[in-house]
Specification:
Elements: H1 2-31, H2 35-47, H3 49-60, H4 64-89, H5 99-117, E1 122-123, H6 125-146, H7 151-164, H8 171-202, H9 207-232, H10 236-261, E2 264-265, H11 272-291, H12 296-315
Antiparallel strand pairs: 1-2
Helix pairs in contact: 1-2, 1-8, 1-9, 2-10, 3-4, 3-9, 3-10, 4-9, 4-10, 4-11, 4-12, 5-6, 5-10, 5-11, 6-10, 8-9, 9-10, 11-12
Length: 317
């Protein structure tokens, strides 16, 4: 039965992701907004809801380690698994946006802020407010950056709108489909986690591995499915924007919301390897964007980091 639930949940994820990508593109075309901005805001926030729900629940129950580990694991998987998969399956990755010039700061700053906050072993409610303000600043940056779209791009978008948007744009229809897509993605992710956990228990896998690996992997499934789906449709900017925006949301909104619920405590020595891996993966993301290394070798490198992370996690049981 668990296998049947797992297959149905995965189907819901894929269908919901397709709805999200298609309708988000329609919104972008309607308002002349770049696909990157849509991916980094609407989709990124939507696909980060599973992490937020899991971390808030863990915080409310006094399980700070799970709340923080979920964010750390999700950030690592978003970069290594999701971005690595995009590089490996895409024939050519040639994004229009200069991610290094415009977005590298927003990829690395939240990680450094997080490191400063956990030096004393606690993420307080004051820290939580600062994290939420950082996300607000990022959204303001994206919206202001979207206004700078050049006239040539606007004309190109208008042409694409005429060619692809044969149906008249309807807010009611689009909102309904976006909402349905989010529900399918989130519900699919939740049922995938539960069924996968039951399957893991049936094979005698420890609860620790289920919590640290399975929860992080499960909550990262929306990012994986949405980004891969966007890549297949040639929307690379949207896919990469989703990853950067999701990690930003994880480190700011997810952790901030969890810490507002109840201050989080962290034994940094116990999570030193995981924290270091998150930092290294983020620095590697910045390095890739700086040198425009959007290629299969870069994807293989990211998978090597992922392999080391999983090997350490499993061997440390």
């Amino acid at each position: 039965m668990n296998f049947v639930i797992f297959v149905i949940a995965m189907a819901a994820l894929i269908w919901g992701a397709d709805l999200l990508v298609r309708e988000s593109e329609r919104i972008a075309l309607k308002f002349h907004i770049s696909e990157f901005v849509i991916g980094a805001t609407l989709i990124a926030l939507g696909t980060s809801l599973p992490e937020m729900a899991a971390s808030i629940a863990a915080s409310a129950e006094g399980k700070s380690q799970i709340a923080i580990a979920n964010v750390i694991g999700s950030n690592i998987l978003n970069i290594t698994l999701v971005l690595g998969t995009i590089f490996l399956i895409s024939k050519k990755v040639n994004p229009d946006r200069d991610f290094f010039a415009k977005d590298s700061t927003w990829a690395i700053v939240p990680i450094f802020v997080f490191l400063l906050m956990v030096i004393d072993g606690t993420i307080s409610r004051f820290d939580a407010v600062l994290l939420l303000l950082l996300m607000a600043a990022y959204i303001m940056f994206l919206l202001r950056d979207a206004r700078g779209i050049i006239a040539a791009e606007i004309e190109e978008i208008e042409e694409e709108l005429k060619e692809n948007d044969k149906e008249r744009f309807s807010w009611l229809r689009t909102t309904a489909l976006v909402s349905a897509g989010l529900v399918l993605v989130i519900a699919g992710a939740n049922f995938t986690i539960e069924s996968a956990s039951d399957i893991a228990r049936s094979f005698g896998i420890s609860e620790w591995v289920i919590g640290i690996i399975m929860v992080s992997l499960g909550t990262s499934l929306p990012e994986l499915v949405v980004s891969v789906s966007a890549s297949f449709k040639g929307k690379v900017d949207m896919a990469i924007g989703n990853i950067i925006g999701s990690n930003m949301a994880n480190t700011t909104i997810v952790l901030g919301s969890a810490a507002l619920t109840k201050p989080l405590s962290l034994d940094t020595s116990a999570y030193f390897f995981d924290i270091s891996t998150m930092l290294i993966a983020t620095l590697l993301l910045v390095f890739i964007t700086a040198n425009k290394l959007y290629s299969k070798p870069a994807g293989i490198t990211l998978f090597i980091i992922l392999g080391l992370f999983l090997d350490h996690t499993i061997s440390s049981i």
